[in-house]
Amino acid sequence: MKLFYRKTGNGKPLIIIHGLYGSSDNWLSIGKKLSGHYTVYMIDQRNHGHSPHAGENSYEDMRNDLVEFMDSHKIGKATILGHSMGGKVAMFYAADYPGRIEKLIVADIAPKDYLLMNETSQFQLHRNILMAMQDIDFAQINSRNEVAGIMAEKIDNLRIRQFLLKNITKNEHSGKFQWRLNPGALYTYLDEIVSGVNKQWLASRIPIFAYPVTFIRGEKSNYISSEDKILIKEIYPEARIIDIPDAGHWLHAEQPELFIKAVLQFN
């Protein structure tokens, strides 16, 4: 699949992979600040942003999209920075293509199967979000505020609603509002998206010291627990783990300067 991307800067390649419901738009300010150190590629993953929609959305599909992207842009080796779902994609890719990784940077996600670890609250949250998105009848919608009102009845968290509403666009032919992302495909693959990385599979494929690894965690986030830090060290013995104070899961948006510092700390 040919992915949409944004590019800025000069230097060795850095590819930024956004998380679920996100897009390259969410990373423009971070990309700009890193552009003095890298040639930064901010991609839209399949079924997100300006990239094509498809019925499939497995981690294998997303990994293969990244392979195709790097091949088409003649990027032999790159630093990969992935946030949340994008971090899982980055770990999958690095495990299968270690020779193409300069550095692996994973933002606020652990190398574990979240469903297997009984993180059912995350699955239920995303299930409710995607059901709410699919329930919107855009044929009856005349403004973004109408969508905001409907979503407010189904999703309590204001920050999540605001983030989701960034995905509304107008169809260039009909002029009607629509979701930019593809909630149907994401719902179909939700089990796999939430599950993520299987520890045993990942550990069996990691060549020791193949590439530098950094995990960046939001101090207020529950996506990487104290136990997960031990797990990270089991799989990536030389991994660096950096906590960002006063930041939750969207650590790059909440503490951008500290996030940039963490990314560049071992540059």
From TrEMBL:
Signal peptide: none annotated. One of its GO terms (molecular function) is hydrolase activity. The keyword Zinc does not apply. It comes from hydrothermal vent metagenome. SUPFAM superfamilies: alpha/beta-Hydrolases. This is AB hydrolase-1 domain-containing protein. Residues 12-124 form the AB hydrolase-1 domain. InterPro entries: AB_hydrolase_1, AB_hydrolase_fold. The lineage of its organism: unclassified sequences, metagenomes, ecological metagenomes. The keyword Hydrolase applies. It holds the Pfam family Abhydrolase_1. Keywords: Hydrolase.
